[in-house]
Design a protein that fits this description.
224 residues, alpha/beta, Rossmann fold, seven-stranded mixed β-sheet, two-stranded antiparallel ribbon, methyltransferase, protein-L-isoaspartate (D-aspartate) O-methyltransferase activity
Length: 224
């Protein structure tokens, strides 16, 4: 029988600490949350792999996946979250990212437009004892989520091929958005966007692989 607590400690020590992740809150949260309960039962033994892992498929064929632990942790670290801030997560791995973020004292909402996956997310969060700590929003990924003052932080647990303007418009002043920019392949990079007044700057951080979201795919251009 696998000792998942031991495997989690190994993930933190061997994958995260060696990948420039030093935020004690992030390290503690990822050591605390049982990643395996958010994976299908027959994939639990793969949950701590150092590679991206597809764990579910929506009715429209789009997948949900774990990012590599070091990629997700470094994205979370770069959001520099403070207790009480409002965090929006898109394309989450059935609640895992929300469970980790909730350990940091932020107010977490997940966007999950697929009814079956939203229900599975609720079940996973209940198993983790977090039913009352996370809000699930059943809207498309590029929708207006109706938060008047905007979100303090947005984490897209996937790749986007184009600048996600619909999401950037929903950042509060000082808000941050982190995502993988590109088609999810070798040239893709985790990018941090920061809003200052009406200006939104961006900064590439590091290379990463992720599944692209259909809602933010680049439209094919004409070839002459």
């Amino acid at each position: 029988m696998i000792d998942y607590a031991k495997v989690r400690r190994m993930m933190v020590d061997n994958q995260l600490r060696t990948y420039d992740i030093s935020d004690l809150g992030v390290l503690s949260a990822m050591n605390e949350v049982p990643r395996e309960i958010f994976a299908p039962a027959d994939m639990a033994n793969l949950a701590y792999s150092d590679r991206p892992l597809v764990i579910a498929q929506a009715e429209d064929g789009e997948t949900r996946h774990f990012l590599a632990p070091m990629v997700f942790a470094r994205m979370l670290q770069n959001l520099d979250l403070n207790a009480g801030e409002r965090l929006l997560i898109l394309a989450g791995a059935l609640g895992y990212e929300a469970a980790v973020a909730a350990q940091l004292g932020v107010s977490v909402s997940i966007v999950e437009p697929d009814a079956a996956l939203a229900e599975k997310t609720r079940q996973n969060l209940a198993q983790a004892g977090l039913s009352d700590d996370v809000t699930i929003i059943d809207k498309p990924f590029d929708a207006d989520f109706g938060v008047a003052d905007g979100f303090d932080a947005i984490l897209v647990n996937a790749a986007v091929e184009k600048r996600p303007e619909a999401l950037l418009a929903q950042l509060a002043d000082g808000g941050r958005l982190v995502t993988v920019m590109g088609d999810g392949g070798r040239t893709s990079r985790v990018t941090l966007f920061v809003r200052s007044g009406e200006v939104i700057g961006d900064r590439p951080l590091f290379d990463a692989a992720a599944q692209p979201l259909k809602a933010f795919r680049e439209e094919p251009g004409f070839v002459f």
